[in-house]
Every structure is written in structure tokens, then in C-alpha cells.
């Protein structure tokens, strides 16, 4: 994530990954404020064995796109809600990538963070049968938790 202030949103991605038993790490890396850290992180990710990167940032959210430009790993972008423009700036700066460097863009805020984790899980589950079973169980539990009546 681009700042520690994004953690309130991005912790939902981490918690969802943890529920699914997916090992992961959480880092603050900014294209603007810590460009060298971003280069090192993105270029080192695949050689270290990471499989997917979830990048959350708000406002002029260049982190997901810049990260995607520096790694062949799939990058999922989470637009963090900004104060001034309610996350529309984050959403558009993450989604409107030029052809050639894709960022899989999720919804603004908490839902996007949760879904980034679930999408990462779905991608990883294509080559991990045990995770596929855990993901199916997660979906089943989720469906069972939805009441049929409003009261
Ligand atoms: N969008 C970016 C990037 C980046 O894209 O590299 N680095 C920080 N930020 C964003 O700035 C917002 C305000 O950050 P502060 O709360 O630290 O001032 C955060 O949402 C962060 O993601």
C-alpha cells in the first residue's frame, strides 16, 4: 500500500487472505515517496517467489500501475477512498492504464480490498487443489450466512 493510512482499508485484504490460509506479506511502498523501494520491491517480487501483488493506493494512485510495469506478476489494484474525491481519483488512476501494462482493478475501499484477496485466491487456486477446496468452502459458508428473510 502507498501509505500506512491505507491500512484501515487494506487490512481487509490481509484478513481475507489469512482466512483462506494464503501466506502473504504487507508492506508500505510508494511510487511517489519511496520510488527506490518500489523499484526494488516490484523487481524482486517474482525472483523471491511471490505469485501475485495486491497494490492499494489513494488519490493519484500510481503505485499499482508502476508496480505492474516492473514485474510480470499479476497486479491487482485497490482504489483507496480519498477525502477530496471519494476515491474516484484513485479508481481512475488505477483502471485507466494504457494497453500493454494491465492492472486488475477492484472496487473502491473495503469491498475492493476483500475482493482483491478473493480474486488472488481464485487465480492461485487454478494450480493449488487444496486452496481450491478452501475457497469453495468459503463461498459455501458465505452463502449459508445469508438469511432468506430480512428479520
Ligand atoms: N497514491 C499514493 C502513492 C503512490 O501511488 O505511489 N503513494 C502514496 N499514495 C497515497 O497517498 C494517500 C495519502 O497518504 P498519506 O495519508 O500518507 O498522506 C494514500 O492513500 C496513499 O496510498
Q: What are the distinct ligands in this entry?
A: ligand C2R
Q: Fill in the CATH topology.
A: Rossmann fold
Low-confidence sequence ranges: none
SSE succession: HHEHEHEHH
- CATH class identity: Alpha Beta
Q: What percent of the residues sit in helical stretches (DSSP H or I)? A: 40-55%
Tell how many strands the DSSP assignment holds.
Answer: 3
Radius of gyration: 16 Å
What's the main sheet like?
Answer: 3 strands, parallel
CATH architecture: 3-Layer(aba) Sandwich
Tally of alpha and pi helices: 6
Q: In terms of structural class, how would the helical and strand content be classed?
A: mainly alpha
Distance between the termini: 39 Å
Explain this structure.
One of its GO terms (molecular function) is 5-(carboxyamino)imidazole ribonucleotide mutase activity. This is N5-carboxyaminoimidazole ribonucleotide mutase. Keywords: Isomerase, Lyase, Purine biosynthesis. The chain is mostly helical. It has a single domain (4-144), classed as 3-Layer(aba) Sandwich (Rossmann fold), CATH 3.40.50.1970. It contains 6 helices and 3 strands; from the N terminus they run ααβαβαβαα. The protein has helices at 7-19, 35-48, 63-69, 88-95, 110-125, 129-144, and strands at 53-58, 75-80, 104-105. Strands 1-2-3 form a 3-stranded parallel β-sheet, sandwiched between helices. Strand 1, helix 3 and strand 2 (75-80) form a beta-alpha-beta unit. The protein is globular. The N and C termini lie far apart (39 Å). The model has no long low-confidence stretch (mean pLDDT 98). Bound molecules: the ligand Nc1c(C(=O)O)ncn1[C@@H]1O[C@H](COP(=O)(O)O)[C@@H](O)[C@H]1O. The ligand Nc1c(C(=O)O)ncn1[C@@H]1O[C@H](COP(=O)(O)O)[C@@H](O)[C@H]1O is lined by residues 1-3, 5-6, 30-33, 57-63, 80.
Amino acid at each position: 500500500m502507498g501509505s500506512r493510512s491505507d491500512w484501515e482499508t487494506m487490512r481487509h485484504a490481509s484478513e481475507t487472505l489469512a482466512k483462506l490460509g494464503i501466506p502473504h506479506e504487507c508492506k508500505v511502498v510508494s511510487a511517489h515517496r519511496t520510488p527506490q523501494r518500489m523499484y526494488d520491491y516490484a523487481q524482486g517480487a517474482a525472483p523471491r517467489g511471490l505469485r501475485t501483488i495486491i497494490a492499494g493506493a489513494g488519490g493519484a494512485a500510481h503505485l499499482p500501475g508502476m508496480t505492474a510495469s516492473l514485474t510480470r506478476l499479476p497486479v491487482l489494484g485497490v482504489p483507496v477512498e480519498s477525502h477530496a474525491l471519494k476515491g474516484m481519483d484513485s479508481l481512475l488512476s488505477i483502471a485507466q492504464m494504457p494497453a500493454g501494462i494491465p492492472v486488475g482493478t477492484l472496487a473502491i475501499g473495503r469491498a475492493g480490498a476483500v475482493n482483491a484477496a478473493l480474486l488472488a485466491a481464485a487465480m492461485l487456486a487454478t494450480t493449488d487443489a487444496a486452496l481450491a477446496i478452501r475457497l469453495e468452502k468459503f463461498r459455501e459458508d458465505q452463502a449459508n450466512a445469508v438469511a432468506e428473510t430480512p428479520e
